[in-house]
Amino acid sequence: MDQSLKDQLSAIQVGTYLMLHGKFNDYTINPTIEQGKLKSIDWANGTLVLYSVTYDLDTTVQLDRISYIDDSRTGSGALGPAQAPDLRQVGNDWYRGDTKIE
């Protein structure tokens, strides 16, 4: 495990929601994500346990397979909409952004 990732993980408190990016299995080509609340870290065995609130189960992750740690989220799901609405109605008028459509 990269030392900067180890330092970052060492500073994270148990119960913090994490989104971990990495190659966690050998049957996919692309990296995947494991997410949940940090339950424990076993430095001796090189693993950590995430608790999934969504599925009510624990997932064990190998520390040496983590490539990126996102601890900025508070739960699963998107941070915002994929696309902002193009048009909006104000009274009887329609706007695209701040431009009134005639």
Q: Which structural class do you get from the secondary structure elements?
A: mainly beta
Strand content: 35-45%
Q: Regarding CATH, which class of the domain at 3-73?
A: Mainly Beta
Q: From the 3D coordinates, which CATH architecture of the domain at 3-73 would you assign?
A: Roll
- Side-by-side strand order of the widest sheet: 4-3-2-1-5
User: Looking at the structure, what is the overall shape?
Assistant: elongated
Query: Helix amount, in percent?
Result: under 10%
Q: How far is the N terminus from the C terminus?
A: 59 Å
The total count of helices amounts to: 1
* Secondary structure tally: strands: 8
Secondary-structure element order, N to C: HEEEEEEEE
* CATH fold-level label of the domain at 3-73: SH3 type barrels
- Outline the biggest β-sheet: 5 strands, antiparallel
Unreliable residue stretches: none
Round the mean pLDDT to the nearest integer and report it: 90
Alpha-carbon Rg, integer: 20 Å
Description:
The protein is mainly β and 102 residues long. It has a domain at 3-73: SH3 type barrels. It is 8% helix and 44% strand. The longest helix has 8 residues, at 3-10. It is elongated, with a radius of gyration of 20 Å.
List the helices and strands and how they pair.
Elements: H1 3-10, E1 17-22, E2 32-42, E3 47-52, E4 57-62, E5 66-70, E6 87-90, E7 93-96, E8 99-101
Antiparallel strand pairs: 1-2, 1-5, 2-3, 3-4, 6-7, 7-8
